[in-house]
Write a structure and sequence with these properties.
globular; about 150 residues; 6 strands; alpha+beta; 3-stranded mixed beta sheet
Length: about 150
């Protein structure tokens, strides 16, 4: 069976989880060393932090199953992280969300999810994209493979 996850539903569900949870989302300002809180709406937005949460969920899923969700990101310098989440094509909604929740639980600090704690995963994605661009790939990247 081929799955296509509704990205809007993932975004709404993540925002709801963050609103109802006991932890805020923050990014570390490397200049000041201060944690800057991010609204649940921005954290869950395709042009906000959703790409990071999707990459983290994909990593959890690959570790558990050996398969990828097929996270589809597009480089976009107008977005918060320089990437826009376009879709997820390789698993049911429930698996995406459960994997995302597990990823958040693994990096959670008391009262906070510090997005910078996902940096090792995110840097791997940036390297993959740079390699694809260097060989002239013109389509949007789909990370994780299969």
């Amino acid at each position: 069976m081929e799955w296509r996850v509704n990205l809007a539903a993932v975004s709404r569900t993540l925002e709801s989880l963050l609103l109802q949870g006991d932890r805020s989302v923050a990014m570390l300002d490397r200049t000041t060393g201060q944690a800057c809180h991010v609204s649940p709406g921005l954290a869950a937005a395709p042009e906000g932090l959703l790409p990071v949460f999707l990459v983290a969920a994909d990593t959890i899923w690959r570790e558990a199953t050996g398969r990828s969700f097929g996270v589809d990101l597009l480089r976009d310098p107008q977005t918060l992280l320089g990437f826009y989440a376009r879709g997820v094509g390789g698993g049911p909604f429930s698996s995406v969300m459960l994997s995302m929740m597990e990823a958040m639980a693994q990096v959670a600090r008391p009262g906070m999810i510090l997005v910078n704690d996902f940096d090792p995963l995110w840097r791997g994605i940036e390297r993959d994209l740079a390699a694809e661009e260097s060989v002239g790939r013109r389509t949007a990247p789909s990370f994780g493979g299969g």
